[in-house]
Amino acid sequence: MRQAHQMESTEDYVELIDDLIRSQGEARLVEVAERLGISQPSASKTLARLQREGFVTSEPYRSIFLTDKGKALADSARERHDLVYQFLLCIGVSDATAKIDSEGVEHHVSAETLEAFRRIIGERQPGNAGTDS
Is the pTM of the predicted complex or chain greater than 0.85? Predict the structure, then answer.
């Protein structure tokens, strides 16, 4: 259970760092802590772990960067999140609820379930109404 929670945290951090780099050109400890609603010391402790595990690089008072391993994890987490979000919208869940629920579900969904989500989304997209003509 603890290891699963740690992986959720890792995914949330690398996805957030990637989002900050995309939108602001850099990710800094203060923004990471602020966006996660935690103290800077707590964020710093987790970032130190992520650095030991090879997901990020950083230097004191400098930006945080994703390693190739961290970027791959961020991309994978974002893809799962987006797929769950799109599926929830597809089955009629409101946008606000889909945003909230997809954040939790993304960490616990199997590859098999994601593939089913993909299939259902594809079947329900305009032009894919199940007709062959």
Answer: no
